[in-house]
Write a structure and sequence with these properties.
Length: 252
């Protein structure tokens, strides 16, 4: 029998209100008009083109309110990591002396990135060299354990690519940052365990990512669609891709 008296439960109603507010807030934001350097290591160059062109995600594939909350929790945890490192004696800067985040803009503003922080001092017992790039990520337990087991370069190549290209592009503003290993930080969102890894600069990786960015931008501006990274729409990267239908169903 149909229950005509059914009303959403209080947790459903409040969650819906919050998510609607977050989605409305996101719609007010100006979309970025550059290729984000943090994304250059993703598997598929065609997906990078969609991003660069601000192509709307397939219906039902845009960020949900829950995903926006996941992003905000990540930012809040990053603020905690900053506090913890500073309390432990790290000289960690997250803002320039003139205000605003550290970052870079190259290729006439077409490629940009914002760095989590720059370390300029730490307890001597660690033997670190400065300045050093600081990059912080938050992960669920499974992803965090894989990072700990394999190291960031193998477990999270997109993050490794991000650090390499950030070190390369920040060198002119912060001389020496590409000579010294970056400090990668990963917070386990389930257990609050923390992982730190010193990641030496990988110049070859930075160059490959820079070449890739140039290729994506040049092809996009020439109206040329880059190939898919796989031959099957059931590839796991495609299952998560916001443009799966467009890519395989419409664009051919
Ligand atoms: S659906 Fe797959 S091949 Fe197409 S853009 Fe996305 S990741 Fe690339």
């Amino acid at each position: 029998m149909l229950d005509f008296n059914h009303r959403p439960k209080i947790h459903e109603q409040i969650s819906e209100l919050i998510d609607a507010a977050l989605l409305a807030e996101r719609q007010q934001q100006t979309p970025r008009n550059y290729l984000g350097a943090s994304r250059l290591g993703v598997a598929c160059e065609r997906a990078l083109q969609y991003e660069y062109l601000h192509i709307a995600p397939d219906p039902g594939r845009d960020f949900s309110g829950r995903v926006l909350r996941v992003f905000e929790v990540g930012h809040a945890l990053e603020d905690l990591a900053i506090r913890w490192l500073r309390r432990a004696g790290f000289e960690l800067y997250t803002q320039k002396a003139t205000g605003g985040q550290f970052g870079f803009s190259v290729a006439g503003g077409r490629i940009q990135g914002h760095v989590d922080g720059v370390i300029n001092g730490a307890p001597a017992s660690l033997g670190m060299n400065f300045p050093a790039l600081w990059e912080c990520k938050t992960m669920n337990d499974k992803s965090w354990r894989d990072t700990v087991k394999q190291g960031v370069a193998k477990s999270k190549p997109v993050y490794a690519a991000q650090m390499a290209i950030y070190q390369a592009y920040m060198e002119s503003a912060i001389p020496g940052i590409s000579r010294n290993p970056a400090l990668f930080t990963a917070i386990n969102k389930d257990s609050q365990e923390i992982w730190f890894e010193l990641v030496p600069f990988d110049g070859g990786l930075a160059q490959r990512m820079s070449d890739r960015a140039v290729n994506v931008i040049a092809a996009t501006e020439a109206g040329e669609q880059l190939p898919r990274h796989t031959t099957t729409p059931t590839h796991f990267e495609c299952k998560w891709c916001a443009w799966q239908d467009r890519c395989w169903g419409v664009a051919g």
